[in-house]
Amino acid sequence: MGRVLVVDKPSGMTSHDVVERIRRSSRVRKVGHTGTLDPGATGVLVVLVGKATRLAHFFVDDVKEYRGHMILGVTTDTQDADGKVLETRDPGGVTRSAVERALAGFVGTIKQVPPMVSAIKHEGTPLYVLARKGIVIERQARTINIERLDLLGFEPPAVEFGVVCSSGTYVRTLAADVGEVLGCGAHLGQLNRTRVGPFDIGQALPLGQVERAGRDVESLGVSMLDALPDFPILRIDEDEEETISTGGSVEVDAERLPGPGEGEFVRITSDGVELAAVGRREAGEGNVVVKPVRVFVDAP
Q1: Fewest C-beta atoms under 10 Å: which of 9, 249, 260, 295?
Q2: Known catalytic membership, residue 38
Q3: Could you tell me the pTM of the whole model?
């Protein structure tokens, strides 16, 4: 069994908590997620069940979209509402136009220093574990991309915003950095993830509904074939499926797999319903050569 679930994560739970509850209710041993949401955040959490856990690699770089609130004038040690207050400053002089200018300054490819309270590891230990011990480690800035950062509402000290960003972006750090540009400091008050790659909040299922499905969880969510809509599809016959099942490459006429060429990932299926494998185009003379990189069909 393999299924991709789009779950609406409730506040107050870790992403790991969600995975564990689905593992228990479905009695499926292999369950994972494609990207952590902080405990206080809500919204889209993509959960992989069964064979679908082997697709995790293909979701790593998915673009994320969020809607959130930052609170001006208060900084915390976690950069969100769960942390200890470090400093308060008067945000009274901050105007709507000043916020718009500050947000615009973060759009594009920028450097961001990850927070101490994060799952990033230092010499094998997560930073949040060190942070709990009062240990602060110098962190290297990482390159991220902010596609959009829009002001959605301004009711001081609250600022509502929407952001579309690359994987690896810490939105609470973004809120804190915007606060510093404004000169009053800020922290992230609320956060809702509304999209991960092709999956949006409109598809998201309440966690309770997923748990109630129990062993019928495969009736929910998205098939493995449909979960990778950006990859072209290659339909194969029985002989080609047998070759694929043992890890062998197939060579097909270019008309069967039009596209840009070498290095592209491809969905491979024999029936148009189930994902037999994910392959990669390789260089060939005239025809297209596809080598499987993840195989889901059993060998004969």
Answers
A1: 260
A2: yes
A3: 0.92
